[in-house]
């Protein structure tokens, strides 16, 4: 039986994105941090990524979408780790990480790995690895700093992220909100929430600017309206000591414990708990992110799947596909400020 303990294999990481993520990017940061963590353990890494990419610890090959991927993979590569669905399939041993929510009746590959337990289960699979980040890329948070507002961290133009809900929650709680990832004016959507003076839109922010806001935040407001596959915004916020106030959809209950946040589908109930944000232990939030969602932990979990693939195993007994069709475009959320029956006491 092949074991990685006896050989430092050559891993090719494929994704049609540009690295590194200079200003903003989710999957770009994940594949960069994964490759770096593997490189630090002695594995040879090559990236097959969008033209214009560069890396100081691995070889970079510009991906040509008009050429068969197999013609772009070096002969000495032992395993291909795809972070996007590719056709035709790699002829080398491979696995594919699914980062999105594929549509109903979309059959995936038997060598698929998902990014949370819920993400996997919804596609009739048990193969998953949590995303992780290299926390050395972030400044060490100051837990004694004065925190004066809450924050929303996502692409605000994407309706499933529900910036409208975040604004309503903080409005009912009489708290200020910093929106990181959106603008008050959007040419496609028109003026957005002009009269909500408790809200400030900061646009798209890079890691350093983001860190300045998160360090002064009382918590993340994340009332998504879909089954979140993972949620980098959640682990970044927890790293800076921010408890999470969100809807209990997708992977979120796996990421957020009772000690590190509160989950509910009611704006009123979430607003009520916002007033007690300081009761959450900021250091425990930080430790949860640092321990469970680091790039090193992610890399070690992937190594277990690499070994299985190299031993000729199928990662899924059956071809993964979405178990149940999602009937509604948006999952339920109650924006009202009326008294609800399940308001926390």
Task: Summarize the structure in words.
This protein is an alpha/beta fold and 345 residues long. It contains nine helices and 14 strands.
Instruction: Please mark out the parts with pLDDT under 50 across 5 or more consecutive residues, or reply none.
Output: 340-345
**Helix-strand makeup class:** alpha/beta
The spatial strand order of the largest sheet comes to 3-2-1-4-5-6
Strand content: 15-25%
Major sheet size, sense and barrel closure: 6 strands, parallel
Number of strands: 14
Distance between the termini: 57 Å
The percent of residues in helical segments reads 10-25%
Question: Gyration radius, to the nearest Å?
Answer: 21 Å
Mean pLDDT: 92
Write down the overall geometry: globular
Order of helices and strands: EHEEEEEHEHEEEEHEHEHEHHH
Number of helices: 9
């Amino acid at each position: 039986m092949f074991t990685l303990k006896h050989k430092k294999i050559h891993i090719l990481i494929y994704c049609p994105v540009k690295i590194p993520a200079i200003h903003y990017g989710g999957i770009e940061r994940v594949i960069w941090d994964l490759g770096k963590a593997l490189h630090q353990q002695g594995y040879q890494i090559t990236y097959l990524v969008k033209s214009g990419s560069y890396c100081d610890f691995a070889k970079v090959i510009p991906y040509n979408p008009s050429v068969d991927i197999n013609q772009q993979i070096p002969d000495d590569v032992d395993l291909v780790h795809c972070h996007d669905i590719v056709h035709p399939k790699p002829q080398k041993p491979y696995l594919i990480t699914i980062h999105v929510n594929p549509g109903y009746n979309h059959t995936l590959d038997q060598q698929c790995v998902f990014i949370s337990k819920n993400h996997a289960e919804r596609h009739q699979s048990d193969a998953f690895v949590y995303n992780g980040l290299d926390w050395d890329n972030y400044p060490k948070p100051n837990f004694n700093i004065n925190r004066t507002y809450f924050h929303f961290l996502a692409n605000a133009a994407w309706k499933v992220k529900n910036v409208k809900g975040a604004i309503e929650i903080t409005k009912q709680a009489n708290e200020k909100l910093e929106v990181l990832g959106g603008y008050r004016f959007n040419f496609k959507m028109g003026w957005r929430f002009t009269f909500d003076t408790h809200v400030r839109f900061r646009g798209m922010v890079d890691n350093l600017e983001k860190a300045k806001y998160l360090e002064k935040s009382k918590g993340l407001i994340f009332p998504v309206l879909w089954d979140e596959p993972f949620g980098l915004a959640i682990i970044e916020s927890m790293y800076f000591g921010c408890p999470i106030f969100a809807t209990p959809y997708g992977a979120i209950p796996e990421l957020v414990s009772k000690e590190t946040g509160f989950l509910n589908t009611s704006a009123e109930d979430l607003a009520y708990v916002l007033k007690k944000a300081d009761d959450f232990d900021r250091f425990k939030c930080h430790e949860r992110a640092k321990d469970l969602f680091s790039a090193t932990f992610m890399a070690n979990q992937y190594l277990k799947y690499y070994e299985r693939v190299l031993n000729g195993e199928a990662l899924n007994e059956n071809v993964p596909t979405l178990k149940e069709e999602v009937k509604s475009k948006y999952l339920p959320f109650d924006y009202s400020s009326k008294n609800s029956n399940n308001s926390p006491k």
